Amino acid sequence: MKLAAKIFTLFFLSAASQLFSQNLTFSPYSRFGLGELNSSGFAQIGALGGTYIGFKPDTISPLFMNVANPACISGIRLTTLELGGIGQFSEFNNGTSKVKAKTVNFSYGSLGFPLGQRAGAAFGLMPYSNVGYNLKTETEVSGIGTVTSKYSGEGGINRVFLGFGIMPFKKVLYKFYRSAYKDSLIANKETAKYKRIKFGKQLLSDLSIGGRADYLFGNILQTSSIIYPGSINYFNTRRYRGTTYNDITGCFGLQTSFVIDSVHKSRKGDTTNTLTRKRKLKKEIRIGFGYYVSLPTTIDVRNSYIAYNYALNSFGDEIPKDTFINTLDQKGDVRLPIEQGIGMSIKKGEMLNIAVDASYTNWQQFRYLNNVNTLKNSYRLSLGINFVPNKNGGGSNAYLRRIQYRIGAFYNTGHLELKNTMINNYAATVGLGLPVGIHRRYQSVSISAQFGKMGSVNNGLMEEKYIKLIVGFSFSAGGDDRWFRKFRYD
Question: Is 90 exceeded by the pLDDT of residue 390?
């Protein structure tokens, strides 16, 4: 445990320094809003198309940490350390030329642990948004010539999170099964009432409630320049804006489910379907539901804004003329929008889990300092499938049967509208969960790949085709090696 804690601490500090020093995106669309937003899902979630609201893997994948919906944190049964890295390979196309870019960096780090039999907690670090662009446009202006505009930006916002999830009514169904009330319902043949009560107590017993606090911190620096051709009548202009973020926001989630373990089957020869009997399913089916909301929050920022005119001498050196805006370390605020969504999952036995999400973000609530907001509300749909042939498989080809196979897809309408064109984003995803544990120790490597497209070449815009690879490493232990376990001696 001490070694794992040291590894996490060193990785945490190293990752934080990298987040400050390196660009994690090259997208020109990171110029707008808070930059290119990152999902709060780990490698497993990425392979499932970012589907997380109703997804509750529990026994199928015990090291699966879903901190995106904090309600799922209640299901952590083993203390688990997870670390991840990301690599992105992009090709940008404006219709006439193509440019390739790539980046490899830290993605996330988290430590999750159970709190008794009903609750769990997790904390860690991951990017919230990234800014990284360098644009140049040239415009012919009558009487002036070719005017060049340059835009660049770098930095981003990071997130330290602390999540907690609990199942407050976990024993409700168990107590009902052992109650005299249940026996009386069966004895009096009140079948319909018994089913209704059992169904309600199933939902209540499996109800998970969770919350997550996110501390956002980071810096975004943006520069814009307007350069006129050699003329004594015009001065070039340069503007710098630096914004520092330091504040707290949060989100909440719910999850619950019910089990179908048998079906009604008509008896042979009964064409009216009036005589039925129950047939026990070989693999029970669990239907799950989830809800997630990220609350609208006004966060404090510090803003510095400098703008000045300058000329170029014959050697190309800048000669400053006058500064017409100079505000340093000025207080301001940014209002984050509400995001909420619902999800549903279908789990069959210990092999298959299918989940679908639908979410909505009210970007028209967004406010960045005193700027006019032109962002649009966005909608996101995603689908994910997790399949494992036999998680406890043995014999020949045992390892292949223990691998988690994942596939998914998502579509996001986006919140940017440029030149009457929405900048949407969609991708197909695949991934593997590779078990590497031996005896009572459990480790796994999760690999996910996203093949997507963002933007469009229409109306002089930019299209980005990308491949995003995320690799996550999970470390845990079971049996006598469980972390945080208290021992008693006689």
Answer: no
